[in-house]
């Protein structure tokens, strides 16, 4: 008779064994982490006092890399656990909100693992972070998260943990970069400075590929949308549209000669998508028509005229001329009468009145940029180039005012993208980086956002070129007919 033997797995003898048996998707979180004494000290400390934890992220929008550092300690500063982590690659660019949120997620994962392994039943953990929005989203289990919110999947995973651990979580705001603002730092601020430094060092290792760490699994199977191994956690619509149409758009713009293929990827398309959310529907439609060359310029009207006459004979009458619906006999610019007019020409027409109007419009842009606390170097370079001649470059104007490599890179990339494309809102992401550094240097105590500035900047460019288009239409058609849609005409 054969003997039946049942193999009973032995219980895990270390924290890591426990994690790999029960939560294998969290193993990667432990790769660059150190939980002292298998979490025994951590668990015991809960019975004496509340514990404190601090996290900070380091993000580069240039290399699109993010890293976090975190620490969990007793109030007497005894280290219970600490770690480093690379942040997930998303379909959209990294930002500090998402990466700081990810740091909080790491703290929660480690805490949950220790609590379960060491069977902790009560306790209090303070989580400190210098990004208020991340802190609020990462510690509030009542927060109702919808799929169209940024990092919805990460927040759902966080809420899963928050609602399933038997300890109290307390959010603690910390001032970021406090070392630049005051002489005496409190406990949290000191740790924040330390975490900031460690996160930076780890990010640099990721960028130099001396370590590899790309944590992408928030949970075993749920909440995930993926495009080519990159997680879609923000702007689902933008991500899907970019994935489907991006390549075709790149080819089309290259074929048209509007934007060379190698310059396409220098444009911050995501910022453009973000900026367009701030526009009215009318503005969005107009931008799409203008940048694609579909607005009713002379060449478009002539093109449509030719199409019309091949279908049926259209005879021009005096009434047509008076009512401004006469056929277009050529595609010359009605203002300078020198060049074939398309939307690009509208932005560089050499007619003296048109040139004066543009100079005024760029002066207004300059004033607006000043009010928006724009890096003066950016203002001088951009306005200098816009008012300059065709022989000018962004680089030549930038070199007059700055030697900073980021500023020079912004100008060089913009030269490759092009001057007209700049006015179409197609801007290098290095402008934002230059502005981010300027804010940090000039206003260290304020939380001015370069992302928000960049969105407003793109919108302002759109509104500036729309005013130039409106001027052109005023001159061609007379004031009252211009920019008045059929809908607006109705009483
Ligand atoms: Zn012209």
Write up this protein.
This protein has 491 residues and is an alpha/beta fold. It is 51% helix and 9% strand. It has helices spanning 15-22, 40-45, 96-118, 132-139, 152-164, 187-207, 236-256, 261-264, 269-276, 281-291, 298-311, 318-322, 343-346, 352-371, 376-387, 394-401, 405-417, 419-423, 430-442, 450-477, 486-489; strands spanning 33-35, 51-60, 65-73, 79-86, 124-129, 168-173, 226-227, 230-231. The N and C termini lie far apart (98 Å). Zinc ion is lined by residues 333, 335-336, 339, 341, 345, 349, 351.
Quick gist of this model?
51% of the residues lie in helices and 9% in strands. The chain is α/β, with parallel strands linked by helices and 491 residues long.
Biggest sheet details: 6 strands, mixed
**How far is the N terminus from the C terminus?**
98 Å
Helix content: 40-55%
Spans with pLDDT under 50 lasting ≥5 residues? Answer: 320-324, 480-491
Task: Using the CA coordinates, give the radius of gyration.
Answer: 29 Å
CATH architecture of the largest domain: 2-Layer Sandwich
Q: Work out the strand percent.
A: 5-15%
Q: Helices and strands: which structural class?
A: alpha/beta
Arithmetic mean pLDDT: 87
**Main sheet: which strands, in order across?**
1-4-3-2-5-6
How many β-strand runs? 8
What's the CATH topology label of the largest domain? Answer: Nucleotidyltransferase, domain 5
How many helices in DSSP terms?
21
CATH top level label of the largest domain? Alpha Beta
| H/E series | HEHEEEHEHHEHEEHHHHHHHHHHHHHHH
Blueprint (SSEs and pairs):
Layout: H1 15-22, E1 33-35, H2 40-45, E2 51-60, E3 65-73, E4 79-86, H3 96-118, E5 124-129, H4 132-139, H5 152-164, E6 168-173, H6 187-207, E7 226-227, E8 230-231, H7 236-256, H8 261-264, H9 269-276, H10 281-291, H11 298-311, H12 318-322, H13 343-346, H14 352-371, H15 376-387, H16 394-401, H17 405-417, H18 419-423, H19 430-442, H20 450-477, H21 486-489
Parallel strand pairs: 2-5, 5-6
Antiparallel strand pairs: 1-4, 2-3, 3-4, 7-8
């Amino acid at each position: 008779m054969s003997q039946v033997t049942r193999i009973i797995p032995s219980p895990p003898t270390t924290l890591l064994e426990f994690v790999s048996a029960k939560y294998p998707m969290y193993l990667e979180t432990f790769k660059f982490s150190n939980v002292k004494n298998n979490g025994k000290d951590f668990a015991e400390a809960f019975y004496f006092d509340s514990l404190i934890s601090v996290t900070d992220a380091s993000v580069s929008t240039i290399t699109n890399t993010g890293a976090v550092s975190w620490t969990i300690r007793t109030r007497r500063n005894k280290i219970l656990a600490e770690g480093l982590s690379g942040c997930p690659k998303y379909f959209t660019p990294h930002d500090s909100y998402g990466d700081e949120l990810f740091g909080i997620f790491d703290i929660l994962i480690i805490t949950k693992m220790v609590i379960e392994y060491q069977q902790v039943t009560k306790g209090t953990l303070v989580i400190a972070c210098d990004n208020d929005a991340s802190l609020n989203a990462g510690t509030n289990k009542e927060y109702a998260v919808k799929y169209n919110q940024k990092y919805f999947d990460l927040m759902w995973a966080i809420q899963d943990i928050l609602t399933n651990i038997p300890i109290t979580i307390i959010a603690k705001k910390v001032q970021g970069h406090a070392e630049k603002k005051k002489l005496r730092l409190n406990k949290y601020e000191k740790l924040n400075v330390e975490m900031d430094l460690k996160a930076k060092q780890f990010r640099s290792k990721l960028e130099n590929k001396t370590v590899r760490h790309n944590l992408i699994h928030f949970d075993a199977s749920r909440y995930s949308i993926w495009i080519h191994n990159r997680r879609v956690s923000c702007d689902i619509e933008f991500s899907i549209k970019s994935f489907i149409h991006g390549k075709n758009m790149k080819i089309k713009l290259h074929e048209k000669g509007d934007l060379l293929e190698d310059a396409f990827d220098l444009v911050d398309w995501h910022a453009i998508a973000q900026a367009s959310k701030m526009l009215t529907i009318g503005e969005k439609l107009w931008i799409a028509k203008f940048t694609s060359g579909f607005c009713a310029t002379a060449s478009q009207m002539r093109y449509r005229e030719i199409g019309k006459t091949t279908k049926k004979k259209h005879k021009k009458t005096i009434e047509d001329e008076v009512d401004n619906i006469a056929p277009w006999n050529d595609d010359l610019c009605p203002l300078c009468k020198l060049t074939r007019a398309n939307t690009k020409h509208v932005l560089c027409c050499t007619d003296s009145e048109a040139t004066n109007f543009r100079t005024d419009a760029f002066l207004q842009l300059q004033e607006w940029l000043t009010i928006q606390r724009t890096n003066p170097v950016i203002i001088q370079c951009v306005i200098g180039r816009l008012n300059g001649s065709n022989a000018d470059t962004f680089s030549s104007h930038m070199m007059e005012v700055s030697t900073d490599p980021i500023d020079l890179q912004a100008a060089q990339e913009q030269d490759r993208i092009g001057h007209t494309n700049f006015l179409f809102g197609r801007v290098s992401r290095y402008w934002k980086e230059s502005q981010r550094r300027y804010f940090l240097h000039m206003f260290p105590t304020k939380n001015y956002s370069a992302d928000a500035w960049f969105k407003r900047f793109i919108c302002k460019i759109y509104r500036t070129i729309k005013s130039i288009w409106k001027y052109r239409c005023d001159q061609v058609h007379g004031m009252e007919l211009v920019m008045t849609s059929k809908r607006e005409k109705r009483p």
